[in-house]
Amino acid sequence: GENVEQHPSTLSVQEGDSAVIKCTYSDSASNYFPWYKQELGKRPQLIIDIRSNVGEKKDQRIAVTLNKTAKHFSLHITETQPEDSAVYFCAASTGTASKLTFGTGTRLQVTL
Amino acid sequence: SQTIHQWPATLVQPVGSPLSLECTVEGTSNPNLYWYRQAAGRGLQLLFYSVGIGQISSEVPQNLSASRPQDRQFILSSKKLLLSDSGFYLCAAPSVYGYTFGSGTRLTVV
Questions:
Q1: Residues of chain A with C-beta less than 8 angstroms from the C-beta of B103
Q2: Which of A45, B18, B21, B30 lies 20 to 30 Å from B92 when distance is taken between CA atoms?
Q3: Count of CB atoms within 10 A of residue B50's CB?
Q4: How far is A18 from chain B (nearest CA, A)?
């Protein structure tokens, strides 16, 4: 089955700096890669996703890149703000309705 | 739009007691449904998924079970809880906007 690895497990950046979180996956059949943000005690919320037919997608301060050959994808957050502090999860699946395999999460702390 | 309801929100149960968590989905028909568990400070582990009424697939061996008695209802059960069953249980379903999660049930086994 699919295996998703995520790094780093914790990340501390200063407000205004950029943050990058990286994930690798094992199943070459995976073609859907969402990213979730989870605040303490809350449910995960989808923040951005990418499908395998594109290499990059951007939404305001958030961008995701995908390298299918290397089987890795990354989340980039620019101009970080304190409200970006949360746990971020990457995931992979073989379709938008298929089961998601999640990475282990990255705790992002944005300091003033 | 799709909405996932879960209850209860929190639950404290003694070891050896039974468990029943319910998830219902609105705004869609015949969805794939998923149960995930998140241990404290950890990632999301897929427990069960269902592609239709009466169809259950288990991802990990454990003392939990799942059932889907109706199209939009997914139930997670246990006959005897273990301490290791403590965690945050999330029901999820795919939509055109990607996976959506219910608000979760925080289970503490004491």
A1: 43
A2: B18
A3: 20
A4: 24
> What is the helix, strand, coil percentage profile of chain A, to 5?
5, 55, 40
Evaluate whether B7 touches B74 at the Cβ level (below 8 Å).
no
Residue that has been written with the tokens 């199943």 in this structure: A27
Chain A neighbors of B45, CB-CB under 8 A: 102
Q: In the numeric block, which tokens belong to residue B77?
A: 């059960």
Are B43 and A89 inside 8 Å of each other by CB? yes
- B26 CB-contact burial (10 Å; exposed 0-12 / middle 13-18 / buried 19+): exposed
Q: What is the pLDDT of residues B18-68, one digit of tens each?
A: 999 999 999 888 899 999 999 888 889 999 999 999 999 998 878 999 999
CA distances from A68 to A13, A25, A30, A86, B65 (A): 28, 9, 9, 27, 36
φ, ψ dihedrals at B83, nearest 5°: -55, -35
Residue range A29-51, pLDDT digits in tens: 999 999 999 999 899 999 999 99
Report CA A95 to chain centroid distance, whole Å: 17
